[in-house]
UniProtKB/TrEMBL annotation:
GO terms for molecular function: malate dehydrogenase (decarboxylating) (NADP+) activity; metal ion binding; NAD binding. Keywords: Metal-binding, NAD, NADP, Oxidoreductase. Residues 293-546 form the Malic enzyme NAD-binding domain. GO terms for cellular component: chloroplast. The keyword Metal-binding applies. This is Malic enzyme. Belongs to the malic enzymes family. The chloroplastic ME isoform decarboxylates malate shuttled from neighboring mesophyll cells. The CO(2) released is then refixed by ribulose-bisphosphate carboxylase. This pathway eliminates the photorespiratory loss of CO(2) that occurs in most plants. Residues 102-283 form the Malic enzyme N-terminal domain. It comes from Lithospermum erythrorhizon. Its cofactor is Mn(2+); Mg(2+).
């Protein structure tokens, strides 16, 4: 690509696919093991174009007669498929149609997802992916990703080598123990890594062939699945302790051995006790990232930074109360404390005192410290014990209320009214997924606060009309952060993830919120610009990697935003020689 055209690239607006345009016009050979042609070419999702094969391609690749005579454009295929998908009434049927398309025609799948991101994101990810995981056994058609179970202990490296792609850059791995707010789904949790990696490509621009979804199956404690004759995973109780950590150690070593130092491993939907343990164990030796702890924290911090404009003041002026003290809650709390510490130069031990957590037993206070799990201990401040959320709200008088409990309908009318009684604009974040598990709905937050709340949630809610004014709820969706963050790590060749990179990602996202967005009550930019947003986040993360000395791709590109946009995957069809 000539440098003179670089300024035309805007990564998601006029030119949504700023990938390797330099080679887009060149002819490519659709290699599989040999050159794919004829019937095998139509069955290969990486190269299949359906009716978009040209007359010349049909001749040179033995496709005559295997396709109807019409030759159509990718745009027409997209139009037809979107019409088909919109005809389905149930989101799960839309999900199945999209997954079927991904198995048939990869580039068309990503073209649809990129061009219709706001409409299709809830289909391929939360909330629909939760239902898909619950029903994964019955909608399971052909395996996606790698399944590594206790049966493969001692042979994980061989299993990784069975995967057809060699140049893997991103792995999303789950053990299925805590899928969204739905609990232990065992082997059926595979829907989560598959969905996340589709978003790495569509929103972040990572090549699909560089992505590998993995489920580690160590059994399940879900009795319903153990009794289900159609369950696709190991029918045994979960392995724990030494047996579990030995398998994970073998997995992490095999990944590094097979794919090198710079492969990003994203831990997804592990149970609290394992999530913290794995992150602290591997963060100094591998390029690892936990989306539930760090991704959620980064996107919520961004919303808080952006909301300072309508709220006024600095982050340190606010008092935060969390409902839920697990991975997400403590991860967000720690990142807020780090950001306040960075702004005020106060030690993080001091800034943590602005933040209070409520768990299932009430307010986390110092008198409970002995019995608390280690990740809750930094948040046990001096105070009399308080048994429930409403009393905690009345006592602490927070300006920001954040729900990460995984339990729906906890922000009751009394709680929201209490928040509104001592805050002109209470900031309420109901982050639990899917929608059914949200602590309150957008309508409830706006109605009970008489239209004064600034509200955001983890899953999408429709706009709400209250007293003649339309409020657009923000969605604190990890999809804003992890694709851009991951892409920034890849384009810089980073070998470690540092907390400063998460802060850089949060700030980059908050900077994308314009006055026009604030006027609508938004504290997150619209998803329609997501590739442009991801390119900016990637550039800031990469810049931080170079600054911290953990980037290996040298020399450093002069303009990182342009470089990020240029490297992004494009789903436009290629022409075959």
């Amino acid at each position: 690509m000539e440098s003179s055209n670089l300024k035309d690239v805007t990564g998601g607006v006029e030119d949504a696919y700023g990938e390797h345009r330099a080679i887009e016009e060149q002819l490519v050979t659709p290699w599989t093991v040999s050159v794919a042609s004829g019937y095998s070419l139509l069955r290969d999702p990486h190269h299949n174009k359906g009716l978009a094969f040209t007359e010349r391609e049909r001749d040179s690749h033995y496709l005559r007669g295997l396709l109807p005579p019409a030759v159509v454009t990718q745009e027409l295929q997209e139009k037809k498929l979107m019409e088909n998908i919109r005809e389905y009434q149930l989101p799960i049927h839309k999900y199945m149609a999209m997954m079927e398309l991904e198995e048939r025609n990869e580039r068309l799948f990503y073209k649809l997802l990129i061009d219709n991101v706001e409409e299709l994101l809830p289909v391929v990810y939360t909330p629909t992916v939760g239902e898909a995981c619950q029903k994964y056994g019955s909608i399971f058609r052909r395996p996606q990703g790698l399944y590594i179970s206790l049966k493969e202990k001692g042979k994980i490296l061989e299993v990784l080598k069975n995967w057809p792609e060699r140049a893997i850059q991103v792995i999303v791995v789950t053990d299925g123990e805590r899928i969204l707010g739905l609990g232990d789904l065992g082997c059926q949790g595979m829907g989560i890594p598959v969905g996340k990696l589709a978003l790495y490509t569509a929103l972040g621009g990572v090549r699909p062939s560089a992505c590998l979804p993995i489920t580690i199956d160590v059994g399940t404690n879900n009795q319903q699945l153990l009794d289900d004759e159609f369950y696709i995973g190991l029918k045994q109780r979960r392995a724990t302790g030494e047996e579990y950590y030995e398998l994970l150690e073998e997995f992490m070593s095999a990944v590094k051995h097979c794919y090198g130092e710079k492969v990003l491993v994203q831990f997804e939907d592990f149970a609290n006790h394992n999530a913290f343990e794995l992150l602290s164990k591997y963060r100094n030796t591998h390029l690892v990232f936990n989306d539930d702890i760090q991704g959620t924290a980064s996107v919520v911090l961004s919303g808080l930074i952006a909301s300072l404009k309508p709220l006024g003041g600095t982050l340190g002026d606010h008092t935060f109360l969390f409902l839920g003290a697990g991975e997400a809650g403590t991860g967000i709390a720690e990142l807020i404390a780090l950001e306040i510490s960075k702004q005020t130069k106060a030690p993080v031990e001091e800034t943590r005192k602005k933040i209070w957590l409520v768990d299932s037993k009430g307010l986390v206070v110092s008198s409970r410290k002995e019995k608390l799990q280690h990740f809750k201990q930094p948040w046990a401040h001096e105070k009399e014990p308080i048994g429930n959320l409403l009393d905690a709200v009345k006592d602490i008088k927070p300006t920001v209320l954040i729900g990460t409990s995984g339990v729906g309908r906890q922000f009751t009318k009394e709680v929201v009214e209490a928040m509104a009684s001592f805050n002109e604009k209470p900031l309420i974040m109901a982050l639990s997924n899917p929608t059914s598990q949200a602590e309150c709905t957008a309508e409830e937050a706006y109605t009970w606060s008489e239209g004064r709340a600034i509200f955001s949630s983890g899953s999408p809610f429709d706009p709400v009309e209250y007293n003649g004014k339309v409020f657009v709820p923000g969605q604190a969706n990890n999809c804003y952060i992890f694709p851009g963050l991951g892409f920034g790590l890849l384009i810089s060749g980073a070998i470690r993830v540092h907390d400063d990179m998460l802060l850089a990602a949060s700030e980059a996202l908050a900077n994308q919120v314009t006055d026009e967005h604030y006027a609508k009550g938004l504290i997150y930019p619209p998803f329609s610009d997501i590739r442009k947003i991801s390119a900016n986040i990637a550039a800031k993360v990469a810049a931080k990697a170079y600054e911290l000395g953990v980037a290996t791709r040298l020399p450093r590109p002069e303009n990182l935003v342009e470089y990020a946009e240029r490297c992004m995957y494009s789903p436009i069809y290629r022409t075959y020689r």
